[in-house]
Specification:
With about 120 residues, the chain is an all-alpha fold. It has one domain. It is about 65% helix and about 0% strand.
Length: about 120
């Protein structure tokens, strides 16, 4: 019976890990990653490692997905595609803000400019 539970837990880990990798949306990926953490915690419980299971439950199922979701939220807010100020609140990113004298940049290292 224990071997069957272990095999099912391994199968569950393989399926949820594959789903996490194949998912392209970061928020959904974080949700699937949370389920992967739960599956790993279950697997660690079946192999009689309760301390690792509790750590995985706390970090892999809660903290890491939360950090991913908060990071995605901040990046989207800064980019103007998520909640927060709209895209009309800042300068136009397509406006030409380069130098007005016709040159495309400075003559710093790696620029390749000649005088």
């Amino acid at each position: 019976m224990t071997d069957v539970l272990l095999a099912l837990a391994l199968l569950l880990v393989a399926v949820t890990a594959t789903a996490a990798v194949l998912n392209r949306e970061p928020v959904r990926q974080a949700l699937v990653l949370s389920f992967l953490g739960l599956a790993l915690a279950l697997l660690f419980t079946f192999v009689q490692a309760p301390d690792v299971s509790l750590s995985q439950l706390a970090v892999g199922s809660a903290v890491t997905p939360l950090m991913i979701v908060l990071t995605v939220r901040k990046v989207r807010r800064d980019a103007g595609t998520g909640p927060g100020p709209g895209p009309d609140s800042g300068p136009d990113p397509s406006a030409n803000t380069g130098p007005a004298h016709g040159r495309s940049g400075g003559d710093g290292p790696g620029e390749g400019g000649r005088r």
